[in-house]
Amino acid sequence: MNTNMKLLVVLIAGLAIGGGATWYALDMRMPAGEMADATGKDAAKAEKEVLFWYDPMVPDQHFDKPGKSPFMDMDLVPKYAGDSAGGNGEAGIRIDPRVAQNLGVRTAPAERGRLWRRIDTVGYVRADDNRVEVLQARINGWIEGLHVHALNDPVKRGQLIAEVYSPDLYVAQEEFLLALKHPEDSGWIGAARQKMAFLGLSPKQIANLEKSGKPQRRVNYHAPIGGIVSRIAVHEGAAVNAGMPILEITDLSKIWVTAEVMENQAAWIAPGKSVEISVDSLPGELFEGKVDYLYPTVNAGTRTHPVRIVLANKGLKLKPGMFAKVTLYGGKGEEAVLVPSEAVITTGKRSIVLVAQGDGHFTPVAVQTGMESDGQTAILKGLEGGEQVVTSGQFLIESEANLRGALDKLGAPGEMAPNIHTGSGSITLIDAKTGELEMRHDPIPSLDWPSMTMEFEVKDPAILNGLKKGQQVEFDLVKEDGGFPVVAIRPKAAAVKPAAGGK
Asked: pTM of the full predicted structure?
């Protein structure tokens, strides 16, 4: 036996003695370079501190010394300081970094902060109901003069609007003039004066009557406010009765905007909150206002709350009926982890983000989302901050994760996502009806499992349909309730043989 062979035998023996139950079967024909590499790794591992020993099939059970596993016919495996937790492996899925780059996969950091409670919605400009005045007739008579003839005509406060002839008012004026001839009867004079006021004469008109001593055939009606004519109820020559409206005037110096706020955002809004409004006809111009009132009703069809906003309308730029873009500010929200909104994948059951672990590894994490504002979404549970989340190309990664069964095994938001462990082997026993499955599998590095034949629990027997004994397969395991059930299994792609004569 030459010197190299003797050295190899001594090395094997030494490792067997020093390593307890861990044995190494080395090929006597191993090239010197490979042998050096293997022994170098063993030496590096030996220098690490052993924290405990465990059975890869039952990784939660720890032992303080090496030996045989009480659960399986195999040796316990050491857990070294600095290694990943025994049996947990690596979560999620892996995509070749070059493929990820070609697909434009981008990431962004998850950072802690606060979002402004900003609501972008739409609304409509309308007149302020508090700035509408109706001009009514107080006597029976006829419209002998109408000085406003078209809707939306502007009028000024005090402008002459209509002249009404009324026999009743004419008689009342005569009575007042007669009473003035008897100054000793002050009660009569006061009653006559009050009667004319009730019939619609202003104090100025009564003073003019008293000065001139001549009754007026017509009663003049003047605009009580400035604005636009929003309604004309009568026309010149028409008869009127007491209480009949003549026309309506609306002051547009201040207007309302009625906006719709989603039901789950209504709690952010209160009277006095700031609002910014823009309209398409005035690009680049912003109108600032305040929330005046949050209506106590909800639109049953749209599930929105109407919100009333008051705006000063300088120059009457805003017209009733205009469509408005509305931004309401409800103050800053609670501190949370913030991610770009495009990083959140929302399904009917949950929201997830994909966390980039580096070297093409991605982990799907279930999250609980909060408010969204200005392209960012608050994450209430699931992330701690500092993670790199995928913002582009995540749907391809999500599809891959679905194929691997990763997304189906996600926990609740804030819980660590379970790890997917992939192995390969051949089926030695299978029954799709009962879910019975036995395989001779290759080593599974993520679980530190050596090659062996064993029975497997199957999560859903339906995944065994179409498979048969002796078939080469790949399978996915997930740790669950102390075991590792198979959650996905698929035929292993056969190697393509070159055609005859091929290289």
From this structure: 0.49
